[in-house]
Amino acid sequence: MKYLQKMFAVSVFLLVAAGMVFSGGQKAQDSGKGLVGVVMPTRSEERWIKDGNAVKEGLEKLGYTVDLQYSDDDIPTQTRQIDDLITKGVKVLVIASIDGSALSNQLANAKAAKIPIISYDRLLMQSPNVDYYVSFDNYKVGVQMGDILVTGLKLDQATAANPVIVELFAGSPDDNNSVGFYNGAMDRLKPYFDKGVLKVPSGQIDRAVIGTLRWDAAEAQKRMENLLSAYYSGNVVLNGILSPYDPISLSTLEACKAVGYGSTPGKPLPVVGGQDCIVASVKSILAGEQYATVLKDTRSLGAATVTLVDTILSGKTPTGLDTTSYNNGAKIVPSLLLDSVIVTKDNVQKDVIDTGYHTRAELGL
Ligand code: GAL
User: Ligand 1 within 6 A of 245 CB?
Assistant: First the structure.
């Protein structure tokens, strides 16, 4: 009996001690204003690292604790991470999805636990449980992608007798942003298609056909290689490429170089735009290869998100939101939409270096 009592006392002691350690651990984690969960799609793309850092550092400065997760572009990993963050008791979830429609169960669980959900950069689709969307105006970004080709290819001077030749690439079909980018670009280019001064020899124009799953640059490169061998073996010269993303711009340019573009008389490198203003693309722009990119300053997106989280957790109602543009299939999600900037050789200094987005050293200058 005595032995049992002793064992009981020891167990109670151990339980209390474990509880103290556990609650101590929790305390350390939740210190300050509370724990915020941030989930980014992948660490293998430069921009999401910048995004993650901007949100984490901004929130920490305000006294929040941040649990930042990267999902390796793997949907089961992302769902598991969100489940874990809900279990940890985060006060807000900030999510940049891989597949915008794949998280409905997690979002429902978060809502049941009264956790507000902010859809970051990419819209979370088909769920009524998304509270806010913070992004850039994706349609306008698409228009800028079109602008880049209009300017770079001098489409206003083109004639139907000597049309400008392009091929088109779109983003990941499971990312709603791809829709805005595509619609914006195609609306900007439509008058030139209609006039017959702009042509796509492959005839591959539909977003479903020209999409690039997971924004995979290698997949886009392969598609470019196939297009070049199928449609450009004769005298047809490719003049431009619609690209929705810098790594795709660089890989499709590689495919062109491999068949003599940029090194054969009469075959200059095609005019290619892009998106995200990654270091390698800015270097390529300065070297006169990629023509332009669209800069979406991740620091501004991060700062807007931090302000939104703080507003929500201070019990205030966010103001100045767009309440018409973004329907996710289940509801219109109140949105904060930032502006983006076209970057060519001419404004790298002003808009990329002077603002500190990339340093001269990063650009190898
Ligand atoms: C999109 C995003 C782009 C680009 C792309 C690939 O959702 O808006 O800026 O980063 O994903 O990661």
Answer: yes
**What is the CATH number assigned to the segment(s) 31-130+298-338?**
3.40.50.2300
- How many Cβ atoms sit within 10 Å of the Cβ of residue 340? 23
Pocket of ligand 1 contains residue 182 by CB under 6 Å:
no
* pLDDT one-digit tens code per residue, 113-163: 999 999 999 999 999 999 999 999 999 999 999 999 999 999 999 999 999
d(C-alpha 132, C-alpha 145), whole Å: 26
Q: Can you read off the two tokens belonging to residue 294?
A: 């669209």
Neighbours of 261 (CB within 10 A): 19
Determine if ligand 1 sits within 6 Å of the CB of residue 50. Answer: no
Give me ligand 1 centre to Cα 104, in Å. Answer: 21
Assess whether the C-beta atom of 42 lies below 6 angstroms from ligand 1: no
pLDDT in tens, 12-28: 333 333 333 333 333 33
User: pTM value?
Assistant: 0.91
CATH class (in words) of the domain with range 138-295: alpha beta
Domain spans, the chain: 31-130+298-338, 138-295
Q: Which residues pair with 67 in a beta bridge?
A: 37
